[in-house]
Amino acid sequence: MPSIEIDGRSIHYAEAGNGPPLILVHGTLLDQRYWAPQMAAFGARYHVYALSMLGCWPTIWDGQDFTIARHTADVAGFIRAVGGPARLLGHSRGGHISFRVASEHPDLIEELVLSEPGGDCDESLAGKPAPASQATGFNSVAAEIAAGRIDEGLRQFVDRVYGPGTWDRWPEPPRQHHRENARSMLGQAHENRKPYSLAAAQAIRARTLLVNGGDTPPSFVANVEALVQAIPDVRRVVIPRTTHDLSNEDPASFNAAVLEFLAP
């Protein structure tokens, strides 16, 4: 499996295609394999790199730094290493990381796609203080995993994010991917993720696409709606009849929407 060393850390990735670089960043409890339904379609036009954040498969979290700031630096370093600027697509927590890269390193990003970016909006965006519920939920999941109740913790997380009963309905491959990344939640529970702010959103200079599922939980819709109002050059697409796992639930529609946006 190929990797690039960033600040003494090996960032593993999958790749496909040739052309300008397109970087894909996964969300919580996931890894590069999340993007399997996108690799061939995107690889027909771009050199696609699907990253695995350090602490996620094929590596295991070892107690080292597992924060948004560290992963933002890793993605920015990766883009420099492959000869950016690049197009950047992030889902969920990966959307939050991608938002930070675009806001803090605007020279590295040509176009940005945020698929249901995770986190909260602060008062400057939402008109009210950010809730504290997310960190509380992560702590509860992490406690189950730390106690060895892996599936119990993962069921709690997945059903909260993707909808009640999702864990039990899922086939074995995505459940096993989550198990293989379960220890990363022990790091993420203490990441102290900052909420999105109006100033950070307005600092994004890249053309931006925000995508959400038509049946997704309200918190992700709220993030998309707030950021659409704040990012200067932005479009929005809703994929009908999908939830937070939209790029896997309807890859044809998701891939088409992203490629249409990125088309020169």
Produce the secondary structure layout.
Blueprint (H helix, E strand, L loop, with lengths): L2 E4 L2 E8 L4 E5 L10 H8 L3 E6 L15 H14 L4 E6 L1 H12 L4 E7 L7 H4 L6 H14 L3 H13 L3 H4 L2 H9 L3 H5 L9 H5 L4 E7 L4 H13 L3 E6 L6 H4 L1 H12 L2
Parallel strand pairs: 3-4, 3-5, 5-6, 6-7, 7-8
Antiparallel strand pairs: 1-2, 2-4
Helix pairs in contact: 2-3, 5-6
- Supply the CATH class: Alpha Beta
Mean pLDDT: 93
Oligomer: single chain
Query: Which runs of at least 5 residues are low in confidence (pLDDT < 50)?
Result: none
How many whole angstroms does the radius of gyration measure? 17 Å
CATH superfamily: Alpha/Beta hydrolase fold, catalytic domain
Give the class from helix and strand content and strand pairing: alpha/beta
| Named CATH topology | Rossmann fold
Q: What profile does the largest beta sheet have?
A: 8 strands, mixed
Overview of this structure, please?
By secondary structure, the chain is α/β, with parallel strands linked by helices. It has a single domain, classed as Alpha/Beta hydrolase fold, catalytic domain (Rossmann fold, 3-Layer(aba) Sandwich), CATH 3.40.50. It has helices at 36-43, 68-81, 93-104, 123-126, 133-146, 150-162, 166-169, 172-180, 184-188, 198-202, 218-230, 246-249, 251-262, and strands at residues 3-6, 9-16, 21-25, 47-52, 86-91, 109-115, 207-213, 234-239. Strands 1-2-4-3-5-6-7-8 form an 8-stranded mixed sheet, sandwiched between helices. Helix 1 links the parallel strand 3 (21-25) and strand 4. It is globular, with a radius of gyration of 17 Å.
